[in-house]
Amino acid sequence: MNIVCLDLEGVLVPEIWIAFAEKSGIPELKRTTRDEPDYDKLMRWRIGILKEHGLGLKEIQDVIKEIDPLPGAKKFLDELRSITQVIIISDTFTQFATPLMEKLGWPTIFCNSLEVAENGEITGFKMRIENSKLTTVKALQSIGYETIASGDSYNDLAMIQASKAGFLFRSTEKIKADYPNLPAFEEYDDLLAAIKSALN
């Protein structure tokens, strides 16, 4: 039994924080897990910047409503889901992901949740589990699944390396150079072909 585990941002949809940084005019918020491997540190830093600028959940959700999946992402996901089980494993939050899941045809997503005050201020976040991507892949393997994984950032590397097949997708030149043993793709057709090959 196979199951494909995909990252969300950068793989199927644009980076939410980059879109919000551009819309809000706060360039510091463009920093993502491609730049900062420590997700906890990154999120605490982001929350601090939001507080500084008086921005909350509503402002981010308004930007997310305007985000569409990357060109070709839904077709890729639909075809992949027609041949095998797929789970999106993301470090994003349910409060961000829901409108994007609707546009992708409601795939299964495992992600985290934000702590939000009554006035809409983001006060913290609750991770579903530590090292969520690797932990989830290992849990799936423990119940009889063979995993195939793909992502673009530092926080995807553990699940990619722990899977029977793993691929970088639209990653950075630095990550590709640091992990030359990982096949890296830029186009959905090539990623789909590699996954199909790994399924056999």
Overview of this protein structure:
With 200 residues, this protein is of the alpha/beta class. The protein has a domain of 125 residues: HAD superfamily/HAD-like (Rossmann fold, 3-Layer(aba) Sandwich). The protein contains nine helices and seven strands, in the order βααααβαββαβαβαβα. Helix 3 runs parallel beside helix 5. The protein is globular. The N and C termini lie close together (11 Å). Belongs to the HAD-like hydrolase superfamily. SerB family. InterPro entries: HAD-like_SerB (IPR050582), HAD-like_sf (IPR036412), HAD_sf (IPR023214), HSK-PSP (IPR011863). One of its GO terms (biological process) is L-serine biosynthetic process.
Feature tags:
200 residues; alpha/beta; Rossmann fold; seven-stranded mixed β-sheet; 7 strands; globular
Secondary-structure blueprint:
Blueprint: E1 2-6, H1 16-24, H2 39-52, H3 57-64, H4 73-83, E2 85-93, H5 94-103, E3 108-116, E4 122-126, H6 132-142, E5 146-151, H7 157-162, E6 165-169, H8 173-178, E7 184-185, H9 188-199
Parallel strand pairs: 1-2, 1-5, 2-3, 5-6, 6-7
Antiparallel strand pairs: 3-4
Q: Kindly report the average pLDDT value.
A: 94
Identify the CATH homologous superfamily of one domain: HAD superfamily/HAD-like
Query: Terminal Cα separation, in Å?
Result: 11 Å
* Number of helices, counting only DSSP H or I runs of 4 residues or more: 9
Q: Report the biggest beta sheet as strand number plus sense, adding barrel if it closes.
A: 7 strands, mixed
What's the alpha carbon Rg, rounded to whole Å?
17 Å
Instruction: Kindly state the percentage of residues in helix.
Output: 40-55%
Order of helices and strands: EHHHHEHEEHEHEHEH
Please identify the structural class as seen in this structure: alpha/beta
> Any guess at the CATH architecture of one domain?
3-Layer(aba) Sandwich
Strand content: 15-25%
Low-confidence blocks of residues:
none
Global shape: globular
How many strands?
Answer: 7
What strand order characterises the main sheet? 4-3-2-1-5-6-7
CATH topology of one domain: Rossmann fold
CATH class group of one domain: Alpha Beta
